[in-house]
Specification:
Blueprint (H helix, E strand, L loop, with lengths): L1 H21 L1 H20 L17 H12 L5 E9 L15 H15 L4 E5 L1 H8 L8 H9 L2 H7 L9 E8 L5 H11 L8 E7 H35 L2 H5 L2 H17 L11 H27 L10 H30 L7 H34 L12
Antiparallel strand pairs: 1-3, 1-4, 2-3
Helix pairs in contact: 1-2, 1-13, 2-11, 2-14, 8-9, 9-12, 11-12, 11-14, 12-13, 12-14, 13-14
Length: about 400
């Protein structure tokens, strides 16, 4: 079958290899322009957190029920929390050590009122609300007064335990939020809310579903950048060692550089986003796709050595044409089979019911396919172009 495939493709492959050998700059120019467009698209790829809803199929009953309830009771199922904690820096300082202190209660009251102004926040509740309800809408002027109020009102003391820890070192402001708001915008505004001046000796943070989602998005970008950089650096080092040449060690990298750019640009065009589950896909694509560049580069060097004994004065690039024809003829079949097998295997991840696994399979399959395309287009053009700048071939008699 391989022989038949080679015979059928010999004419087109030979024409393509000759075109690359004679017009390498044109080939590179075409794909560089294409890469600029796809690179711009890839730069637009957004990141998204992974919610429980996104982890499950859309048509599953639990999701349908969730959406039904969310439509009827908007904002009831998305919550965030502003946490205020005592954090004295010195043992014998005058810093606050009890969150029942009126200064802290007034602070959390201000936080709650400011949080209510954030679009998407339905309500904000704190210990200050409980104290004000039990004291005619006012917060007492001293810690002793607050303690007395709680000691004399058992119900108030019981209610306030929902907002203050048992050791009085931590208090919370509970926020109820709409479920369909932009999490990034809401969290950004809440981060501004907690920047207001706070009492000495306390710290403040925010947490909850939307905050965790946005934090995961931020970590996704950091993770993808770090893993990609480390993978790329290690691949460079390995290739230079394997080829014992900086030039031929770097050329195979074009496979994953262009392949990844084209793949991610295409994925953006069809609406994909990076999630925590898929943040490591780029590194995996690099690990698989680099093999295509190595095959083409190694085979071309071998074929070039086999044809280096001949020299045609009328066509000084003939040996490169022959080397490229033989290279593409020999690597096309195994690379095609490898790509098909990998793409089918990755796409099989979609057979399950988890959307994130299906997305991962699609992204990896796309990356592998484009890496093969890059290995058969950009890499041959660069190999021929750089080889032209090398030493001239010697005649059979050894003269130049």
């Amino acid at each position: 079958m391989r022989d038949k495939l080679s015979k059928l493709g010999k004419g087109p492959l030979e024409k393509y290899a000759k075109f690359v050998a004679h017009h390498a700059i044109i080939v590179l120019a075409i794909f560089l322009l294409f890469s600029l467009f796809m690179g711009y698209q890839a730069s637009l790829m957004g990141t998204a957190g992974t919610t429980q809803k996104a982890m499950l199929p859309e048509d599953i009953e639990v999701i349908n029920t969730f959406e039904l309830i969310a439509d009827q009771f908007a904002g009831s199922f998305v919550t965030s929390t502003i946490v205020v904690e005592t954090e004295p820096r010195y043992a014998k300082s005058d810093e606050i050590r009890d969150v029942r202190d009126p200064e802290v209660l007034r602070y959390v009251d201000v936080l709650a009122e400011r949080a209510k102004l954030v679009y998407g926040v339905v309500s904000a509740e704190s210990a200050a609300d409980v104290i004000k309800e039990a004291n005619d809408g006012r917060i007492p002027g001293s810690l002793r007064s607050v303690k007395s109020l709680l000691e004399n009102n058992e119900m108030t003391e019981q209610r306030i335990s929902n907002y203050i820890s048992d050791d009085y070192s931590l208090t919370v402001v509970r926020l109820n939020m709409l479920s369909d708001v932009n999490a990034e915008e809401v969290v950004e505004e809440l981060r501004e809310v907690i920047t207001i001046e706070k009492p000495q000796g306390v710290s403040v943070e925010i947490s909850g579903g939307p905050v965790i989602e946005v934090t995961m998005q931020e970590l996704v970008g950091e993770t993808m950048g770090m893993t990609s950089f480390v993978s790329f650096a290690l691949i460079i080092l390995l290739l230079i060692i394997v080829f014992a040449s900086i030039k031929y060690g770097l050329i195979p990298l074009l496979t994953i550089v262009f392949g990844v750019i084209w793949a991610f640009g295409t994925l953006v065009l069809v609406g994909f986003e990076i999630t925590p589950a898929t943040s490591g896909v780029m590194a995996m694509i690099m690990g698989i796709g680099i093999d295509f560049g190595i095959q083409v580069t190694k085979r071309f060097r071998y074929e070039l050595q086999q044809t280096s004994g001949t020299f045609d004065q009328n066509d000084p690039y003939r040996n490169r044409e022959e080397a490229m024809v033989n290279t593409i003829s020999n690597v096309l079949y195994p690379m095609t089979i490898t790509t098909i097998a990998a793409a089918v295997g990755f796409k099989c991840l979609a057979l399950g019911q988890l959307p994130m696994m299906a997305d991962m399979g699609t992204m990896m399959a796309t990356g592998v396919v484009f890496c093969m395309v890059a290995a058969l287009t950009v890499v041959p053009a660069v190999l021929v172009l750089l080889t032209r700048k090398g030493k001239k071939e010697k005649r059979k008699d050894g003269t130049k």
